[in-house]
Every structure is written in C-alpha cells, then in structure tokens.
Amino acid sequence: MNENPFYDPTLRKRHRSARIFKWLARSSILLTMGFLLFFLFDMLRTAAPAVQQAYVQVEITYSKKAARFSQFAVEKDYRPLVSRAWLRTIPKQMEDNPALLGTSELRWVLADDQVDQYLKGHHHNLKQKELDALATLQAENAVELQLNNIFFNNGDSKLPEFAGIQSAIVGSILTLLVTMVLAFPLGVMTAVYLEEFAKDNPITHFIEVNINNLAAIPSILFGLLGLSVFINLFGLPRSSPLVGGMTLALMTLPIIIVSSRAALRSVPDSIRQAGYGLGLTKLNIVKDHVLPVAMPGILTGSIIGLAQAMGETAPLIIIGMIAFIPDSPGSITEAATVLPAQIYTWAGMPERAYIEKTAAGIVVILTVLIGLNASAIYLRKKYEIKW
C-alpha cells in the first residue's frame, strides 16, 4: 500500500484514458486526411484523361453535296471516326469562305468520342470495321491526342467530345456577381446595425435567433423560396443569373451577418470609448474606426460565404439553372447554367466520355474554391490586428 498522502489510486487509470483519447483523436485526423487524399487522388486520376482529346487527319472535300449534307465531306470509311459536331461546322466554313467550294484538303479534325475512349484505353463501342479504318490511320500517323482546348472554349454539348465548361463558367461568374452585390452590403449593414446600434430588447433577440437559424437550414429551401418569390410572384426570368444570384444571396446573407458580427464584436471597446472621449458621434466611431478594424474579419467571412454559394447546386436546380445551355449568357437576364449544375448534368449522362469531363469539372471548381479560401486566409493574416 502506498504511504504517500498525495497518492491517487485512480491516477494511472486516468492517464490511460487520456492516452486512449489522444490516440483516438490522432486516428480521426489521420482517417480524415486519408479519405481526403484518396478523394483528391481518385479525382485527379479520373480527370487526367480529359486533358487530351483525340484528333484524326482525314481528307475533307468541300462540295455542294457536302454543303447540304456535311457527312459527305469525309470518305465513307472514315466518316464514323469524325465527330458529328465538327462535321456540322462544314457548311458554316464554306459560307464564311466561298473559295473552299470545289477544293479538298488534308486536315486534323476532332474525332468521335468512341475513338477518343479507344485511344485512352477505356471502354468503347467501335465496330471491327471502324477499328480497321482507325488502324489504317494510325499506320499513317494520322491519329493523335492533342491538348483539349475544347474543354475551356466550348459550352455544353450532347456530344461529349464537343462539350466544355465555358458557358457554365460565365454563368457562375455572373451569378456570383449578383450574389456579392446583394449579399455583401446588406449583410454587413445588418451586422453593423445589430451589433452597434440596435437596442437590447426582445425584438432584437428574435431577429438574432432567426438569423442564426437561417444559417443552418437546408439550402434547397432557399431554392423553393426563390422559385415562389422571384419567379412565380415577381415574374423574373427563370434559369437566369439574376434569379440564381438573388437566391444564393438569400442563402449567403446569414453567413455574412454572423461572421461580420463576430468581427465587429472582436474590436476592443476601448476604441469606441476613446472616440466618445474625443466627442465623436456613434456614426463617426463605427464608420471611421470600428469598421476599418473589423474589415479583415468581415471580408474573410464574406469570401467563405461566397465560396459556399459557388459550390451550391440544390437551390439552383429548383430555379431551373440545370437546363441544357450550350451558349454563354450575355447578361444576367439570359438563361444560364453554373459549374456545379453542369457537373451534376454530366454525371447523369450515359456516355462514358462524360466521366472524365465530370471529374475535370470537379477539379476546376475545387481549384476555384481552394483559391477563394486561400484568399480569405491571406486577407485575415495580412490585415489582422492583434491586441
């Protein structure tokens, strides 16, 4: 028996429990990092083939018949190997350059998606006759994989080899601009009023509780709200960046308000008291002293809120921003789609070539989101004032 009066018989047991808890915590971190790394590795591995696109070199004949039926511009044996989307551009080429009529030339043209999948070693549906024709071209060094510029220069297409994300990127930018213009000033001003000017009464508490609850409700409910108010009640154009941005602004507002209030609350009261001592008004103190000090925190919260809005799909599906939109919108009232909705659409397509494009789209949106979050961290670190 231990004679030490300070001896605690439960000490060894408590230390063992602490070690187990520490081990479990480390295991959780390692497991989380493992899942994250596996996800990133699998996504990059799946997206890598989308960097290249198959092209074949065939003779193109510009005839009157080809101007009406573009498939006749290519020799019959090689016709199935050429993308139908590229063949459809032949009449436009002849219209823009009439001198092409009656000529023929050897050109590198976009290959069909089945040829692309075959060259990349994926599942394909090429018939033996088409494989023989492709082998003939390969023997002549007339088949190659080139950098896939189409992915960033084209909009959506029902033919996977011709599909890109340009229209979705433009739609995402316009939608986020509307969201930022509406949500940032409204959110910051609401936070300033609640934190600096509002009286401490039941009405203010009721508003605060509801704002905190709004930040936690499912995003699809904001889509239903946008559908019923902006489209059905106000008659704003469906599928437009205007409605999408307004809907996402509703979703982002609570996040900006909560983060802005936290940033304002972190400003020491001594600054406010010093302002009163110098005879400044409440407005002067908030505008000239409190807001500039709190701005890094406000910007950080706002950027994170916008990054979350950019990755949202559910509310935009409800308001119709998942429609097939091949062309980039020219204004915020034209029909558009956004990058998450485009990825969602491709994920449901039966053609296997869309798998790599879906993964590539996810990599693009992940890169943008990481960039936005990195910007938020940079702003916070650069302008942070420690008291």
UniProtKB/TrEMBL annotation:
Membrane topology: Multi-pass membrane protein
Entry-linked PROSITE patterns: ABC_TM1
Compartments, record wording: Cell inner membrane; Cell membrane
Listed GO MF terms: phosphate transmembrane transporter activity
GO BP annotations, alphabetical order: phosphate ion transmembrane transport
Domain ABC transmembrane type-1: 169-375
Pfam families xrefs: BPD_transp_1, DUF3333
Gene Ontology CC: one annotated term: plasma membrane
Keywords, alphabetical: Cell membrane, Membrane, Transmembrane, Transmembrane helix, Transport
Transmembrane parts of this sequence: 20-41, 168-194, 214-236, 242-264, 303-325, 359-379
InterPro entries: DUF3333, MetI-like, MetI-like_sf, Phosphate_PstA
Main subcellular location: membrane
SUPFAM superfamilies documented for this protein: MetI-like
Highest taxon of source: Bacteria
Family listed: Belongs to the binding-protein-dependent transport system permease family. CysTW subfamily.
Name by which UniProt lists this protein: Phosphate transport system permease protein PstA
Native source organism of the sequence: Oleiphilus messinensis
